[in-house]
Queue: 2 jobs
Job 1
Amino acid sequence: MSPLQFFIGHRAEILQATATHLTLVLIAMAIAVLIAVPLGMVIVQRPTLRNIALGIASVFQTIPSLALFGFLIPIPFIGGIGPRTAIVALVLYALLPILRNTYVGLTGIDAAVLQAAEAMGMTNTQILWRVRLPLALPVILAGIRTATIITIGVATIAAAIGAGGLGTFIFRGVAMVSNAVILAGAIPAALLAIAADLLLAWLERRLKVA
Amino acid sequence: MNAKADLPSESTIVLHDVTYSINGKASPPIIDCISLEIHVGETLVLLGRSGSGKTTLLKLINGLLSPQSGDVIVQGRPTCEWDAIRLRRGIGYVIQEGGLFPHFTVAQNIGLVPKLEKWEPARIAKRVEELLILVGLDPHEFATRRPHQLSGGQRQRVGVARALAADPLILLMDEPFGALDPVTRAELQREFSKLVRRLGKTIVFVTHDLREALLLASRIILLESGHIVASAKPQDFLHIDHPEVKAFASCIDDLPGAIA
């Protein structure tokens, strides 16, 4: 069976897997952003916490993805087989790029601008929300872009622990020694990653000043 | 503004035995036991080499830094008793390169303190227009521009306008024209010296350029490693017999000789 025939014959199933895949990525990214961006804002002021947070996030990123899934399975509540474990792993994977870029973005602002803000009588909260964050946004977004692409890739492996998604086809195709089945998972996953990259890069450019 | 109401005396800023050092007592002080009175409406120029403590002195006035000992009294109240935010909102501040917010338009930059002070938008818009005209920029052309669309000289004009926005009594200026090319610098210095006379603000102006000091000052204070070594009106300054004064004066004298 040619890949094209397989695509047409299983389009509903492929679409379903793509939707599952995208859902996994979106949920994981939403959680990762909600953790990493505020954490990045906090560690700007606290050097000790900064080293700990960046250190832990780096460790998660260093562990091979399949191994990370494996580690999580035996853990009660968050572990087990299925999408929940996969999302936890994806979140842990996505943390570092977002956290690091949030920190770098917030600290890499022209000192003269920050001094002017302080000298004009802005409070620290006002400086954070009206100066630091808007200026850091393109850098933070670059971190989110990197994390999204990583997550789309790692999410294919989530199929190995029963989370579904496009990885299902890839693993099945490998088992069946069928290129058509492998491509039915690989091509949509690649397209998703490219589309996400283009979309977020465009957004980043829109937000960049000067 | 309430700052205007409680104007106490002829001295708007008083420094009393002020000492400041970075690591407490470990390192030599940057400001070493300085006492100084700055009068209402004068343009006091703090002159000195890099590292002489002039910028530090400026930052002590608006509470960006706190003295280790001594008092900095602004409008009758020590800075440590002021709410730092209130104190700074009542003091205009201009720095080298402007320190403009790159993500704000010119109008937003100038209108920032009024906005923080919760002025009506219409009043802010009117004030911004007024100030742009005051600093010699056409409001229609410049209000909606971003800082990166301005030349260095234009950025400094906006920086001055921004500092004047909420009509502060005191203006602190840290080498505002230092990063400009010589021609633009001379142009801004001339315009600014006229503006100063019209505004009647108390201005503390930091520079290492003696010509600038002579042009703008009503009084020049010369700093050397955290001490005041000379204080004089511009017309008397060059007659002071002090090695650091002579060192500064020689920069001006040498120039024609060097060319010839």
Note: Chain B touches chain A at residues 62, 64, 84-91, 93, 95-103, 112-113, 116, 146-148, 162, 172 (CB under 8 Å).
Job 2
Amino acid sequence: MSAQLTQRVAFALLTLMAVVVVVPIVLVVGYIVVQGLGAISWEFVSDFPRNGMKEGGILPAIIGTVLLTFGTAIASIPIALGAAIYLAEYARDTWLTRTIRLAIINLAGIPSVVYGLFGLGMFVLFLGFGASIVAGSLTLGLMTMPVVISTAEEALLTVPQRFRVVSRSLGASHWQTVRNVVLPNALPGILTGVILGLERAAGETAPILFTAAAFYLPRLPQSAFSPTMALPYHLYVIATQVPGMPLEVQYGTALVLLVLVLGLNLVATVLRSRFRRRRQW
Amino acid sequence: MVSKFSIRNLGFYYDDHQALRDVSVDVPANEITVVFGPSHAGKSTLLRCLNRLNDLIENVALRVEGKVLLDGQDIYRPGLDVTELRRRVGMVFALPIPLPLTIRQNVTYGPLMSGEKNPARLAELVERCLKQAAIWDEVKDRLDDPAMRLSGGQQQRLCIARSLALEPEVILLDNPTSGLDPLSTAKVEASLEILKESYTVVLVPHSVQQAARVADLAVFLLNGELVEAGPGEVLFTSPRERRTEDYVTGRFG
């Protein structure tokens, strides 16, 4: 086979593999839109479930997921950001920082159901928060933290070293340099990481299974220590636990969850591309 | 003649590599001191010893021997405020590195960091420093444009203005014209002549020719050692040392 032909075949194969990646996402989204669109109505997103959840809407699940996502943000962002700044800007290469990095990598690899069990033991039972928004947010926050730390550290490290040296040469302290030069330039990258982390948290079922989610609640959560309905868990329940559930309602619920998560993804993408265009270095 | 810096038996190590050995020289106030020599002579290291910018190098064991006295005070003494030192000893780098801010913000960065808040005073600083660096006329109508949009020569003069805004006593320039065309270089050199009236200037030059053009005091370094130091007009015309003569006349380097 001539080099020319080999090249063409290889190129065709590589293109094919790249296209294969696109196919599942198009199929999944397309299928869910086709199956679920019929269920979507104003009532569906603004009303409580009725008649054993077979009718009415999914408002409490939507609100629950939004609340849990906010809670996750509050629980994870400050600590994750602090850790990322420490690792990127202050930490020297010692056994301690190597251990911290190893811990972060391993935290990211822990299955979500294990986080759920840990949350049950730690927040629900030991700290006595009960199955609640607080317990669920803390559990999801733990799960989100390694993702946010890694992406935020990455974003901080992409700010060129020369800016730090210049800032210090102008008599700025270490922290002034981080605060005024590094953070502003890393912020869009950090935001992208935060959103990607939250998006994952919003779609998770296992961590909230034992820590926050309720099968069915007749009213919205009254406080941060109330349990709540949530979209992923609601979807799991109506797909497996309720006999005679209309398919359309199941796919409609999936569609709402998908729109929520992909919406966050879209925000992250837009942020990133705007940042790239505005970046001066 | 008043000495601004007195460098006494200065040695500097990166890990096991000795970059400077036993360097002793006095840097006169309000003159241009030129530190020149071939690459790896230790010129930049010497410059960065004077504002302790070498301290920022990570993951390398640094060691300093000897003393560097600024107005008679050792700048390596324990408890010295390094940020304060860097305000007294400003620095301009080989490549212009504007911060990703506007022209105005680049100039006000240093003063703001040291706590200057008075807007009138800041505005006055911006105008005065940009004038001193011979760039005011080119940027006065677009002070709020991104500094990165300036040409290389303008960026370098902005960086000089930015150091001046610290109201330092000494300005270190590490090959500030390396990336500049001859016209911009001439502008920067002209501004050095103005600057030495108010500041002590220490310059690593781009070439021997540049060294000869601007030096009041010339310091020749080779492999981390000070070979010869003397008034520019003497050192470049009748050097005492053979190695200096060979380098200055282009026989090596």
Note: Chain A touches chain B at residues 92-93, 162-173, 176, 180-181, 185, 279-281 (CB under 8 Å).
